Amino acid sequence: MDRGKFIVFEGIDGSGKGTQINLLVEEMKRQGRTVYQTAEPTNSVTGGILRDALGGFTDRTAYEMSAMFLLDRIFHNSNKINGIKQFLERGIDVVCDRYYYSSFAYQGIDADLKWVMDMNLNCKEILKPDLCIFLDIDSQSSDERIAKNRLEREIYEKKEMQERIRKRFLEVFGILKDSENVKIVDASRSIGEVSGDIIKIYNEFKGEV
Ligand code: TMP
User: pLDDT tens digit string along 48-84?
Assistant: First the structure.
């Protein structure tokens, strides 16, 4: 049996990941694939501590956040019940909302970027995605979407911060261009246009692997 494919979505907050993930998963299932949809932070104990910090209920340094996202990610990969690794080994595709690229872009601003990258990329229990789709949107547009859809904001959901995070994402994809398979999609367009591009990228990716 072939190993499943591991696909990750990234983007600043309000970039439309949730909508686009649902549309891609629907298409993959239509094509006959079995898909497990997941997200980070997970529902682990560490994920709960992270949610608390993201909501602003507790203060954590960028180093603490990096280490907790790492721990949550190891659990996300390796746990025997719904871990990414065991699904892939069973031939099931995994589509994940955020992964280590988010740690690089969000924590890699206040914590040392190289340290954050090294501990994720050199960890044998953290799998490398087969494909990362980055939904690229300017912080003004994403901010308008956040304002429309949420009653409260998480600690990173401020416009100036989101602009820095977006720049960090693009910088990191430059650093990783020879080792990671990242596709950047202009997410400022209509849902249908963005989804059309993503499905095209997916079909090409399937043809390559
Ligand atoms: P979301 O569920 O709205 O995507 O929220 C997750 C938040 O967690 C989002 O603001 C990005 C942040 N995050 C990090 O800062 N580092 C990480 O490694 C991950 C996976 C998420």
Answer: 999 999 999 999 999 999 999 999 999 999 999 999 9
Query: 């992270």: which residue's tokens?
Result: 50
Residue 149: count other Cβ atoms within 10 Å of its Cβ.
Answer: 9
Q: Residue 33: name the closest of 25, 41, 45 by CA.
A: 25
The values of phi and psi at residue 123, to 5°, are: -90, 120
Both tokens of 92, joined, read 């099931």
3-state DSSP helix/strand/coil % of the chain, to nearest 5:
55, 15, 35
Which domains occur in the chain, in start order? 6-208 (3.40.50.300)
| 135 vs 12: CA distance, rounded Å | 8
- Cβ–Cβ < 8 Å for 101, 42: no
Residue nearest to ligand 1 atom 21, measured at CA:
102
* H and E: helices and strands count for the chain: 9, 5
Q: Are 25 and 116 in contact (CB under 8 A)?
A: no
Expressed in angstroms and rounded, the spacing between residue 17 Cα and the centre of ligand 1 is 12
38 Cβ partners below 8 Å, 6+ apart? 76, 82, 84, 94, 95, 96, 97
Residues in the ligand 1 pocket, defined by CB under 6 Å:
13, 40-41, 54, 69, 98, 102-103, 106-107, 154, 156
Encode pLDDT of 130-149 as tens digits.
999 999 999 999 999 889 88
